[in-house]
Amino acid sequence: MKIIDYPDFDEKVYQEVLANGLTVNIVPKVGFHKTYASFTVNYGSVDSTFISLNDNKITNRPDGVAHFLEHKLFEKADYDAFELFGQLGADSNAFTSYTKTSYLFSTVENVRKCIETLLDFVQSPYFTNDSVEKEKGIIAQEIMMYDDDYNWRLYSGIVENLYPNSPLSKDIAGTVESIKNISTKDLYECYQAFYQPSNMDLFVVGAVDPDEVISWIKENQSKKEFPVVPRIIHSKSMINEKYDIIPYRMLEVDTSRPKVAVGIRGDTELPAGKKGLKYKIALNLGMYLLMGESAEAYSNLYDEGLIDDSFDYDISVGRGYHFCVVSGETSNAEELTKRIIDLLKTANEIISKQTTEFMLAKKEFIGRQIQSMNSLEGIANRYEGKLFDGAMSFDAVKILEELRLVDVVQAINEFIEPNSVSVYQVLPKEDV
Length: 432
Fold this sequence. Notes:
Strand content: 15-25%
Radius of gyration: 23 Å
CATH topology of the largest domain: Cytochrome Bc1 Complex, Chain A, domain 1
Number of helices: 17
Distance between the termini: 69 Å
Number of strands: 15
Number of domains: 2
CATH architecture of the largest domain: 2-Layer Sandwich
């Protein structure tokens, strides 16, 4: 096993790529009683279109297949993985994002059995026509539930503005109509295309012995045969094409208080490897200096009653995309929108003068990172695999320590362009 040493934090990462291509990361945590593991496939909702190198043809599948697979993999012919984890004293869960799907558990007992269960249920698909049809109704209810969540409608609305007609503009779960078209054949074909060990990683962190854990994993994998399939490449053009941003849309609903979202789309290509992580950290620091809770602009907006505790910004970075959403409830949607856009227009001028504030913010960010090292979930879930060249959460501290104000200004300058900004508002229905 390769050992990546972080002596400043007394941490070690044990890493090995198995013969079948599966990447395994193990982080032992002395003094901890809990173990957390995540099994992740580089496959998410944007991958409804992909290219098979077998014939170089573009393959299209209904929106929502990745999320549908996440639901169905827990159910087997003779057991349910959720129930099995419960019997082992473990909590289990899963989630699908735009570009990945993760299956996870946390436990203080039966660690080996839990790891084997995680590997086995994800690597043994079992779908029947009847169970697939039944699941369509369950997922349809989930989609309709989100349709009634106005905060979700605000977020999904601004993302659709930023990436209209692209895979990112589609709900991760698909639509009620698209999931009706998902077949058992679709599930098996997409599973075989993407759920290959070479397209997956396993991350184990907590009260474990690395040599012991890797032996369990190798023994488990040695008993399995994986079909040789044509290599699949993600259709990058589906995201990287320069879709024209929708400048403004609004939605009128039965709500008493307006909601505003201002989105910024990053149109430059994300730097490769750890430079990408540095860029992401610089963007986060820049937005924090511009409109975080310690910023002058935040205080002014709060004192004027234009924002409340719901006001925040979120930077999302993934394979083929990066964007930021600034959002919150307000008493005056038009004024808050104007003020946010004015801030973005003068971002470089404001941030470049904040030498003292930058040093204080950097120390705060470093403190947060060090504190997060006590979170097993944080360590595992921040791992982005190939996106940041295998960078760990431990690498973020060194990046922060070396980060300069000029790096932040440069990142913000590259990110915020006049034509990269969009607005979405959720407004109360006007009385007729």
